[in-house]
């Protein structure tokens, strides 16, 4: 359990902040040398003046466009003064939809199946710890909203700003599952199943093959059957047939005591 009250943001905004404009930016591997995620937010007072802005890069352990949007929300909320009443403006409709489902409602176990459940749990924790009243509103995308364009430009600028400090955020979820010192911020049940599948595939891959002296006892038939029948590991398809399935068949045939291998 994580009982320590941590901070994600080192910024403390004034109580006069009334609106936060937030945005995230994601550059996939295909359009960039490495995948890159950034966030940005701008704090506005009731008169429409910009009080503070912040932007930074996010570790790309789980690269995902929505993740950058959620982290922008998370960092902005953690920068607020306690007992604040705030309006958060975003052009991400999916963020608002998931907010209504996972934050602006009682906790439901379905949250743990969400790929960003640790971030959403941290958002809930910050709102509770700081006693915040938060309302999300939708800014029409490409509507030439000056403040929305401003925060969008900040998020994009973070990709190329070489002077930004690397930030490894402290997640505030009450319970954090880790694997090899990395927080598991995806569907926990799916993650455990994939680790189990990978372990069985590794067992199959390292069994002795191409051995003229091999016998039937050298074959782990239980593992072979599991890997051969496992239809969950379908990474890519060609002509409606999994390439990974074809790879498993090849390994299996290489192991069998056929006339070619004997």
TrEMBL record:
Pfam families per UniProt: RNase_H
> Domain of life here?
Eukaryota
Q: MF terms per GO, please?
A: nucleic acid binding; RNA-DNA hybrid ribonuclease activity
Question: Cross-referenced InterPro entries, in alphabetical order?
Answer: RNaseH-like_sf, RNaseH_domain, RNaseH_sf
RNase H type-1 domain location, by residue? Answer: 14-160
- Its source organism is Rhizophagus irregularis (strain DAOM 197198w)
Q: Which Gene3D superfamilies match?
A: Ribonuclease H-like superfamily/Ribonuclease H
Q: Which PROSITE patterns match?
A: RNASE_H_1
Q: What is this protein called?
A: RNase H type-1 domain-containing protein
